[in-house]
Design a protein that fits this description.
The protein is mainly alpha-helical and about 150 residues long. It has one domain (about 5-150): nmb1532 protein domain like (Four Helix Bundle (Hemerythrin (Met), subunit A)). Helices cover about 90% and strands about 0% of the residues. Helix 1 runs antiparallel to helix 4 (about 95-130), helix 1 packs parallel to helix 5 (about 135-150) and helix 2 (about 30-65) packs antiparallel against helix 3 (about 70-95). The chain is elongated and about 50 Å long. The two termini are about 25 Å apart.
Protein backbone atom coordinates (compact mmCIF):
# COMPACT_ATOMS: atom_id res chain seq x y z
CA UNK A 1 0.00 0.00 0.00
CA UNK A 2 1.18 3.48 -0.76
CA UNK A 3 1.62 6.24 1.77
CA UNK A 4 -1.91 7.39 1.05
CA UNK A 5 -3.71 4.43 2.60
CA UNK A 6 -0.86 2.70 4.45
CA UNK A 7 -1.48 5.04 7.39
CA UNK A 8 -5.14 4.01 7.47
CA UNK A 9 -4.28 0.31 7.44
CA UNK A 10 -1.77 0.93 10.25
CA UNK A 11 -4.43 2.86 12.14
CA UNK A 12 -6.69 -0.20 12.07
CA UNK A 13 -4.09 -1.85 14.34
CA UNK A 14 -4.26 1.02 16.86
CA UNK A 15 -8.02 0.65 16.99
CA UNK A 16 -7.70 -3.12 17.43
CA UNK A 17 -5.28 -2.69 20.36
CA UNK A 18 -7.67 -0.36 22.22
CA UNK A 19 -10.56 -2.71 21.51
CA UNK A 20 -8.60 -5.68 22.89
CA UNK A 21 -7.72 -3.70 26.02
CA UNK A 22 -11.41 -2.96 26.64
CA UNK A 23 -12.31 -6.62 26.14
CA UNK A 24 -9.56 -7.78 28.51
CA UNK A 25 -10.69 -5.34 31.20
CA UNK A 26 -14.34 -6.39 30.83
CA UNK A 27 -13.39 -10.07 31.18
CA UNK A 28 -11.46 -9.17 34.35
CA UNK A 29 -14.47 -7.24 35.68
CA UNK A 30 -12.39 -4.05 35.84
CA UNK A 31 -15.06 -1.64 34.64
CA UNK A 32 -12.98 1.48 35.29
CA UNK A 33 -10.20 0.21 33.05
CA UNK A 34 -12.76 -1.12 30.56
CA UNK A 35 -14.50 2.23 30.36
CA UNK A 36 -11.22 4.08 29.80
CA UNK A 37 -10.06 1.63 27.13
CA UNK A 38 -13.46 1.61 25.44
CA UNK A 39 -13.51 5.43 25.38
CA UNK A 40 -10.03 5.46 23.78
CA UNK A 41 -11.14 2.88 21.26
CA UNK A 42 -14.30 4.77 20.43
CA UNK A 43 -12.46 8.07 19.90
CA UNK A 44 -9.88 6.26 17.78
CA UNK A 45 -12.39 4.48 15.55
CA UNK A 46 -14.66 7.52 15.19
CA UNK A 47 -11.62 9.53 14.08
CA UNK A 48 -10.81 6.78 11.62
CA UNK A 49 -14.34 6.76 10.23
CA UNK A 50 -14.25 10.55 9.91
CA UNK A 51 -10.94 10.46 8.01
CA UNK A 52 -12.44 8.03 5.54
CA UNK A 53 -15.91 9.58 5.25
CA UNK A 54 -14.79 13.22 5.11
CA UNK A 55 -11.51 12.94 3.19
CA UNK A 56 -10.71 9.61 1.51
CA UNK A 57 -14.14 8.60 0.24
CA UNK A 58 -15.06 12.04 -1.19
CA UNK A 59 -11.65 12.25 -2.90
CA UNK A 60 -12.12 8.79 -4.41
CA UNK A 61 -15.68 9.59 -5.47
CA UNK A 62 -14.62 12.86 -7.12
CA UNK A 63 -11.80 11.14 -8.98
CA UNK A 64 -13.82 8.11 -10.13
CA UNK A 65 -17.34 9.53 -10.35
CA UNK A 66 -18.56 6.52 -8.35
CA UNK A 67 -20.72 7.16 -5.29
CA UNK A 68 -22.79 3.95 -5.34
CA UNK A 69 -19.89 1.53 -5.11
CA UNK A 70 -17.55 0.46 -2.34
CA UNK A 71 -17.61 3.76 -0.46
CA UNK A 72 -21.37 3.47 -0.04
CA UNK A 73 -20.96 -0.02 1.43
CA UNK A 74 -18.21 1.19 3.80
CA UNK A 75 -20.39 4.06 5.03
CA UNK A 76 -23.25 1.64 5.72
CA UNK A 77 -20.91 -0.62 7.66
CA UNK A 78 -19.61 2.37 9.64
CA UNK A 79 -23.23 3.15 10.59
CA UNK A 80 -23.77 -0.44 11.74
CA UNK A 81 -20.60 -0.33 13.81
CA UNK A 82 -21.61 3.00 15.35
CA UNK A 83 -24.85 1.39 16.48
CA UNK A 84 -22.90 -1.42 18.15
CA UNK A 85 -20.61 1.16 19.78
CA UNK A 86 -23.68 2.83 21.29
CA UNK A 87 -24.88 -0.52 22.61
CA UNK A 88 -21.46 -1.31 24.01
CA UNK A 89 -21.25 2.05 25.77
CA UNK A 90 -24.54 1.24 27.48
CA UNK A 91 -23.21 -2.15 28.61
CA UNK A 92 -20.06 -0.54 30.01
CA UNK A 93 -22.17 1.97 31.95
CA UNK A 94 -24.36 -0.88 33.25
CA UNK A 95 -21.35 -3.10 33.98
CA UNK A 96 -23.08 -5.77 31.93
CA UNK A 97 -20.37 -8.31 31.12
CA UNK A 98 -22.65 -10.58 29.11
CA UNK A 99 -24.03 -7.73 27.00
CA UNK A 100 -20.58 -6.26 26.49
CA UNK A 101 -19.14 -9.61 25.46
CA UNK A 102 -21.92 -10.32 22.96
CA UNK A 103 -21.70 -6.91 21.34
CA UNK A 104 -17.89 -7.07 21.35
CA UNK A 105 -17.96 -10.41 19.55
CA UNK A 106 -20.30 -9.03 16.89
CA UNK A 107 -18.26 -5.86 16.48
CA UNK A 108 -15.00 -7.79 16.23
CA UNK A 109 -16.34 -9.92 13.38
CA UNK A 110 -17.69 -6.82 11.61
CA UNK A 111 -14.41 -4.93 12.02
CA UNK A 112 -12.35 -7.87 10.74
CA UNK A 113 -14.50 -8.25 7.63
CA UNK A 114 -14.67 -4.49 7.10
CA UNK A 115 -10.92 -3.99 7.45
CA UNK A 116 -10.18 -6.84 5.04
CA UNK A 117 -12.42 -5.26 2.41
CA UNK A 118 -10.83 -1.86 2.91
CA UNK A 119 -7.24 -3.07 2.97
CA UNK A 120 -7.56 -5.55 0.08
CA UNK A 121 -10.11 -3.86 -2.18
CA UNK A 122 -10.94 -0.23 -1.43
CA UNK A 123 -7.56 1.09 -0.30
CA UNK A 124 -5.74 -0.21 -3.40
CA UNK A 125 -8.48 1.36 -5.55
CA UNK A 126 -8.03 4.66 -3.67
CA UNK A 127 -4.24 4.47 -4.01
CA UNK A 128 -4.63 4.10 -7.75
CA UNK A 129 -7.33 6.74 -8.19
CA UNK A 130 -5.70 9.28 -5.89
CA UNK A 131 -2.04 8.68 -6.77
CA UNK A 132 -0.15 11.93 -6.44
CA UNK A 133 -2.99 13.79 -4.70
CA UNK A 134 -0.83 15.44 -2.03
CA UNK A 135 -3.77 17.37 -0.60
CA UNK A 136 -5.80 14.24 0.21
CA UNK A 137 -2.67 12.54 1.57
CA UNK A 138 -1.86 15.50 3.85
CA UNK A 139 -5.45 15.74 5.08
CA UNK A 140 -5.55 12.02 5.84
CA UNK A 141 -2.26 12.17 7.72
CA UNK A 142 -3.52 15.09 9.80
CA UNK A 143 -6.89 13.41 10.50
CA UNK A 144 -5.27 10.17 11.69
CA UNK A 145 -2.74 12.05 13.83
CA UNK A 146 -5.58 14.06 15.38
CA UNK A 147 -7.60 10.91 16.11
CA UNK A 148 -4.59 9.22 17.65
CA UNK A 149 -3.75 12.25 19.80
CA UNK A 150 -7.37 12.62 20.90
CA UNK A 151 -7.44 9.00 22.02
CA UNK A 152 -4.27 9.41 24.05
CA UNK A 153 -2.29 6.89 21.99
CA UNK A 154 1.32 7.85 21.29
Amino acid sequence: MSGLTARLAEHHKHCDEDFAAAEDAARAGDWGRCGAAFDRFRREIEGHFAAEEEILFPGFERRTGSVAGPTRVMRMEHAQMRSLLDQMAATVAARDAVGFSGNAETLLIMMQQHNLKEENILYPMCDQALAGDVEVEALLRQAIETATEASGVA
